[in-house]
Amino acid sequence: MNITFKSSANADAIAYLCYEGDSLLDEAAVSVDKSSQGALTKAMKAARFEGKLGQIVEILAPSGVDAERVLIVGLGKSDKADDRSFENTGATLVKKLLVSGANSLDIVGAGSADSVARLALGARLASYRFDNYRTTLKDDAKPTLTDVAIVTSSVKEAESAWVRLSATADGTEMARDLVNEPPNTLHPESYAERLKELETLGLEVEVLDEAAMEKLGMGSLLGVGQGSVKGSRLVVMKWNGSKDKSAAPVALVGKGVTFDTGGISLKPGLNMQDMKGDMGGSAAVVGAMVSLATRKAKANVVGLVGLVENMPDGNAIRPGDVLKSAAGKTIEIQNTDAEGRLVLVDVLWYAQEKHKPRAIIDLATLTGAILVALGDEHAGVFSNNDELAGQIDAAGKAEGETIWRMPLSTTYDKQIDSEIADMRNMGGPLAGSATAAQFLARFIENETPWAHIDIAGVAWRSNKNRPMETGWASGYGPRLLDRIVADNYED
Length: 491
Prior knowledge:
Radius of gyration: 24 Å
Shape: elongated
CATH class of the largest domain: Alpha Beta
Number of helices: 15
Strand content: 15-25%
Protein name: Probable cytosol aminopeptidase
EC number: 3.4.11.1, 3.4.11.10
Cofactor: Mn(2+)
Oligomer: single chain
Enzyme class: hydrolase
């Protein structure tokens, strides 16, 4: 989708925004209403249009107007309008017109430069499609809308506000593409190759293969992937945008299980196809690194993703096995479907050992228990540091990728203590998300500020009532992470 900003409207479709209240139409819309002999006011009256948020009236081929269609769009009460209102309005308009036959849309009446940029973001994300594998799509189902412009008197200011949001849209679309990709084409080896291509953005990308990880003692991560014919990988993406290139980076760590059968502890067959998305945490990290590099963020950030495929095989790990992590800690396997934490702990160790980060944030589709607790509305956050948890909460509210802080406590340790090893990888049926987080916490050293974000409920979900989400993969994470860096860690 081509997004621009301009000072006057002249598109196939023109949308006029208005607030709920007595005087619905602004000066530009009043002029159009006069030219069309009152077609707008007649249509608004017939539709009982009051300017409420989400209300739309569409007039096709109005006489006296060059545009093929005119839309009147409600923003709700002016004192209630916020970033989400503008984002969802831009998204709703694009969804309505994407396959309508209209090629261009101008949106008039947005207000401030920030509001204009948020309209643009909603429009951009709502235009996303994943049609890579469609071969029989009918013409009337193919997108026609290619250009969206926001009409504003502050073009330069809007373009400036759009820079960061456009970069986060790039990252969100990248995350969606990765999560949507079929597991036969996106496996650890091909995933790593795709990430190597990000060097064109200015990222430094290093790929560690199984031999390199074996030398480092990453028996926990490698154990998960040993049942697959696809080799596991660890990919490190570095962005050094701070003035002080030697300053400690923020580390973003992602779980990248490209397909999760559950291993020997095989999952039920129902909806197992969704397990191609078990790399959603890694996709969030990759998307964030794309966003940061695209907008040349003035911060040092390192993104690390552990890429494995969890398959049942004669060589797969078994319940009862003991693995040795790179940190030297031993792990008794209770259930091979509690595999994401096994991947993460070796990547967390590597992040701390090699990069000495000032803070660590990991993201993972880790537990079904977080879905039980929070549904698909919030990600769950567990943290050893109140300041970092507050940064994540504030960024989530600012970008609409909301979180809810969950308890992290040593009282859960007894559930993951093992009789034959340092710990076991599963704590039983109760507090599953908390025991998983407590397992990860055992690998955080020197009181490094750390947060674990369980995104199992939000990495993919129905797009019902979510205008900016257009398909199965939500693309959750890049906007959140980029905002955390922008607000707290840039020069």
